[in-house]
Every structure is written in C-alpha cells, then in structure tokens.
Amino acid sequence: MEEILIQTQSINLSDDQFFQLCVENKYIRFERDKDKNIIIMAPTGYEVEEFETSILTELKNWNKKERLGYVTGSNAGFYLPDSSMRAPDVSWIKKERINELSAKEKKQFPYLCPDFVVEVISESDTLKKQQIKMDEWVMNGIRLGWLVDYKNRTTYIYQPNAEIVKKTFDEILSGDDVLPGFELKLSDIIAD
User: I need a labelling partner for 74 at 20 to 30 A (CA). Which of 19, 51, 122, 163 fits?
Assistant: First the structure.
C-alpha cells in the first residue's frame, strides 16, 4: 500500500483544524507537505517497524543515561518552518528546546524541527521520495539525520552544509556533536 495524497487547495485547514483532524482519526497516520496537502501514511510492515523500534530503544537508552533531551517515535508530529507537518520514525530534541514550549504546544504538534531524525524506508516508500523528504528536514533545521534503507542495508547521513555520507549497516553510525557519545551499528540490532 502506498501513501495517499489529498490535495487541499480548496480546504485550507488551519494548524488547529489539522491537529483536530488527526485527533479525531487517531488510527490514521497523517502528515502534511509544505503545500498543505494532506498525506495519509501507509502502515509499515512488521519487520521494518520492529527495526525502527530497536533504533528508538537504543536512542532512548542513551538518552536515559545522558539526560540531554527527549526521544519520540513515529506518532509525534512537528510543524516545520516550511508549513509542513512531519512525523519522523524516530526523533530527538534537546531538553532546553522542549522546556521552552508551552503546555499547549507539548500536547499538540510543536512548532519546531527536531535536532535529530531517523527515517526508515519501508515497503511503501521509495529511496528517491525519502531522499527528498530528508532534504526538506535539512532545510527545516535538523542538525543530523539518518535515512535508513533497510532492504539494501545502507544508511545515508544528512547534516546541514555537508555532503551526504553513505554507510553500510556494518559501519558504526555516530551521533557526532548532536548526540555526544551515541554510536550505533545497525547490523547489531537486526532481528534475524
């Protein structure tokens, strides 16, 4: 199943209305592109979801020890500077940035771009489409992003003002200065 794009030129939902649409349809995963078109996301298969959860767990364990920020999974959405609302598979945000949010913003989709995101290419995605999405993440302000091609066991590392770096699952990924001390070898967390 592929995602479904609903063009909304005639609808033009406000951010609050869009959030309400998401709340009222809690079993449907929505995103919104920069043109405010609504995207109904296809569910991931078991294998990719288990892998995403393993990445999230590793990041959560590191964060529990370091206590530098907050980790979320694919249900946390963010309003980005380009007017889109995206929900990465895994994200991390510095504690200070979350602490600046109002109580309402914490309950809804905050107006901020995560410091770190992971997007895993599922069966319904294409590499090209996800590369475009990662470029948008960079333009909106991520400091580090990993695009993980599960099928081909490859990770593309995105950072502002830097060339994209490609690594195999047997190579160690680093959190660099965004996630100090966080390292992960994806081949270690694949359930075989």
Answer: 163
